[in-house]
Amino acid sequence: MTPRHEGRLKLIRAVLPVIIVFLVFLGIGLRLWYLQVYQYQTYQRLSINNRIRLKSIPASRGLIFDRNGVLLVDNRPSYCAAIVPEDIKDPHALFSFLKQALWIDEKEIRKRLKKRAYFAPFQARVIKKNLGILEVARLQTHLAEFPGLEILIRSRRHYLYGELASHLLGYIGEINQRELKKYQKKEKNVYSPGDYIGKYGIEKTLEKELRGEKGGYQVEVDANGREMKTLDRVAPIPGHNIYLTISIFLQKKLEELMADKAGAAVAVNAETGEILAMVSHPNFDPNLFTTGITPLQWRALAKNPLHPLQDRAIQGTYPPGSTYKIVTASGGLEEGVIQPDTILFCPGYLRFGHRSYRCWKKSGHGNISIHQAIVGSCDVFFYQVGLRLGVDRLAFYSRAFGLGKPTGIQLPGEKGGLIPDSRWKRKRFHEPWYQGETLSIAIGQGYVLATPLQMAMLMASVANDGKLLRPLVVSKIVDIGGKTLKKCKAEIRSRLPLSEKTLKIVKSGLWGVVNEPHGTARRARLKDISVSGKTGTAQVVRIKRDKLSHKKVAVHLRDHAWFVAFAPSDQPVIAMSVLVEHGGHGGSAAAPIAGKFLRAFFDGEEQY
Fold first, then answer.
1. CB-based burial of residue 516 (10 Å sphere; 0-12 exposed, 13-18 middle, 19+ buried)?
2. Are the C-beta atoms of 154 and 139 separated by less than 8 Å?
3. Fewer Cβ atoms within 10 Å of its own Cβ: the N or the C terminal residue of the chain?
4. Structural domain boundaries of the chain?
5. pLDDT, tens only, 339-349
6. φ and ψ at 277, to 5 degrees?
């Protein structure tokens, strides 16, 4: 090797360690720059979280009262066991302790923590709610031993009357990921994982008013996550209180009358549209959802063939049966296709095409006027009126009475029912409308569907001389200081396109249904109060009943029983509808319920 090459080699040996050392320090310097400058805010936040944490304070949810100030829904304190995963030192020891103290195994704990993977770091995650006194005592004595374990005090919703008005009041539940994303798009930082929101009924509709505003506090913690001292605190603002239009006394009475039946009933102030009582049976206990419904309890509700979670008053759609004859009669009179003195013949059937369309009275009603047809609910008379009107004019008057569209009540999930016409059928089935189908529509069968609430509002519009009202279920909203923030007033949606003469004739017929000898709703009659109404029997399936009595038909195939009414007849203050699923005849199954309820209403009118 030449001296020249030896010199280069010595130079490389001398310089290479310097370069390596330089690169090492350069890497360390870059890393320090990345951590201390570029990632400064991130690590500052983590450092502060290790020492100072911000904890939220849930707001007390607003209370719910009836129209007279009777408390229906309040809040009660509840203890919950929670875990802060970031603070756990020995997971195995903690989970073993919880298994003994709370009877919850490690697999279940990990499952619940995994479900709450979208929680923020250092956020407590509830693993068991509504702890008993003994469970709280066991945890309290061992909190110092297990970093990450906490006892939280939360407000639990309590429905004082259990199942009473459950569909109306609704219930609350823990917010899920889908709901969290939905609300965060509208209102950022209002909800966090683990919060409770309204899921059904008024609790859902007025969620914004009821929820209040969360507070919070800054707390300094030690290395084990234990709170050392509070640095700052912002008090939560309670939600607003809601006063409903229902009377709990009337609600209780109507629920008692419907207790052993499947169906719905609605009572409404005929002049204001205020809902006085609204029942859907069977119902459910909303307290199940606030205490933590078990899988077994949920399956029992979800798979119940009577569907207790469905609000039949606003979501159940049924053929209105003969109660729909109010629409047919009004349309026929207003359009002039019949007059008050028009006489039509009923031999007990109507021959049309190759079929015979029967009247409920096999022997027929003979020669009969519009008044007698309403009183005796003659099918053949209304078949003929329906044919003269045609389906499109029937549809026009149906919609004028509020059928075929939601009423606009302040509850979620309301259905609008169905009012068919020729255009609807062509669009739906790509077929023309046949006149034979009009016969079924004219007596409230066929495609036409309505909810019990719609029928109650229809009856109210007849009672108040043509005002179609929006039903009200909320009376007023009041803040925690007692100040009224909003007072709900009667709202007229539209007016019936009927003359005073038409309404007078229809009302006369409805009075006769209850009070005349041949009326179909004599069992709704009251001695001192004049009641007007209309019965209805809605066929579920076509069955030849010539030799088959109602009791011999399978229960699920029996007709639905309807009755709609208002009272007093001369100066109406209340209107209502009653539907008994598979109850048979409206006069025997639904009318007595309305009669007993109206008796209770007028006996205690002053307190309602």
1. middle
2. no
3. N
4. 53-244, 248-283+311-607
5. 999 999 999 99
6. -160, 145
| β-bridge mates for residue 125, sequence order | 83
- Distance CA(321)–CA(84), nearest Å, equals 60
Quickly tell me which residue has 């100030």 as its tokens.
69
- Helix, strand, coil content of the chain in percent (nearest 5): 40, 25, 35
Indicate the helix (H) or strand (E) that contains 464: none
Do 344 and 384 form a contact (C-beta atoms < 8 A)? yes
Please give the CATH topology (third level) of the domain spanning 53-244.
Penicillin-binding protein 2a (Domain 2) (3.90.1310)
Choice between 547 and 268, residue whose per-residue pLDDT is larger? 268
Rounded to two decimals, what is the model's pTM? Answer: 0.86
| Beta strands, E only, 103-224 | 125-128, 149-159, 171-174, 196-200, 215-221
Residue 195 in tokens = 């919060």
Instruction: Give the catalytic positions in this structure.
Output: 322
**Single-letter residue type at 247:** S
pLDDT in tens, 293-312: 888 898 999 999 999 999 99
CA distance 375 to 378: 8
Q: How far apart are CA 153 and CA 461, in angstroms?
A: 50
Rounded CA separation 198/182 (Å): 14
Q: What is the pLDDT of residue 477?
A: 97
**Shared fold status for 53-244 and 248-283+311-607:** no
Q: Which fold has domain 248-283+311-607?
A: Beta-lactamase (3.40.710)
Compute the distance between CA of residue 512 and CA of residue 527 in angstroms, rounded to an integer. 15
**Residue 56, class by beta-carbon neighbours within 10 Å (0-12 exposed, 13-18 middle, 19+ buried)?**
middle
Q: Helix, strand, or coil here: 299? A: helix
Beta carbons within 10 angstroms of residue 32's beta carbon: 10
In the sheet that 215-221 helps form, which strands lie side by side, from edge to edge?
52-57, 215-221, 227-234
**DSSP label of 213:** B
